[in-house]
Amino acid sequence: MDRLSNLPNHILSDILSFVPFKEAAKTSTLSKHWHHQWQSTRNLDFNHLYFANRDSNGDVQLQPQIFIDFVQQFIANNNSPIMDKLSLTFSQPGDFQETVEKCITFSVDRKVKHLKLDFSDPTWDENDLDGLAHPMFDLPQSFYNHQVLESVTLFSCKFDVFGFKNFGLLKSISLGWIELKVSTVKALLANCACLESLSVKSCWDMDSLSVCGKDLKLSSLVVEKCHFLDPSFEIEAPNLNYMKYCGTVVLFTVNGTSLEEADLDFGPEFECDESLGDSLYQSLNGICPTRALTVCTYMLQVIPMGEEPTGMEPRLNVTHLTLRTAMHNYEQGGIRFFLNSCPRLETLTIDIDRSRRICNEYRPPFEDKFEDLWRSSAIIFRCITQTLRKVEIKGFKGTPNEVYVMLYLVNHARVMEKLTVITSSEESNNRGPETFRSIAEQVYGFRKGSENLAIEIV
Fold it and tell me: What residue ranges define each of the domains in the chain, with the CATH number in brackets?
């Protein structure tokens, strides 16, 4: 018996609203009863890539007219009084401005709370923002009539920042693929009194970044792959507890915050020298204290090249450290640096991806080989013997360096309670998950420094 189809339509609408839009549309093939039921979903995702084809060479061929016809028909036939979310992704809106404006007006009429307008081109290179032509879609006046908008994403859009004064309930803003001046950011913060989350991605010609205000409610700040004319951050937001940065090396000045978690990824930086090691040291010093810290393979390679190669002074207050690493020999100095810098460390996550970039011009600050450190009993960090209780290793492939680190932790961590090893699901050098798991299981035979250690291999 088909019990699901016998549910009232409003219940089915609730269920379909929790399903991705593309998957909800597939239910139209189930039966006549379901043919139009999916159109009652309150979460709309109009994406031109859903209507694309691939040619014989595998290249994506967009079909803008077919996509626009679908959007027009859906809007014309939809009678729902309220929508929760609407996402419109369309990289060639110039010839179809009228339809796009109708879609935006539809979102206003249906009291959409979460709106995403993405007019960026998927062929754009986020690592070469200066070398692209960036046509912006000029948002119509109807956009500023939203009265219940709580979150908005605007990619490749031209907007009037002062129009945001109308968004009294707006809590989250995400901007991308636009020219973004520091004055625009300041105006957004001033006009959106309830703003809790700000994200900027692939923006260019940013003078710098200033997020300051004693009355700011901002709790989350994300900056990804932007081009800065002045690589400096000034942050003074009393409620900020999460910050993520991905880009070239910048200097952070963080004051008066309650920062709990920081995620730093300097992978897009191509330079590699001692001065950048000092800059990374200053940036790290600028965002602390923070309890949870994530660092990248670039930082593991470069930060020991500075004037302080062995650790931070004063030591960090980090209790949860995540190392995004390739487990390359060049990173062993950085791993040593952070273990030495975190004497209160309780949780260590080692996220392994061997495709992460290794600096070609790198000059190791230590002559020791990778295995020499991890096989030695001479260097035992304070956190290893006194505070470290939980370790998780992700993407384990059983390379010698991975085994050395795992052996070191199991041998010397005296209070560790849980070690979780998650083996990689990828094939590598004619070896697969079964081989990775077999190597990981060697840990059961290691001498354990903690009597209470439980080991799980996934």
Answer: 67-259 (3.80.10), 277-458 (3.80.10)
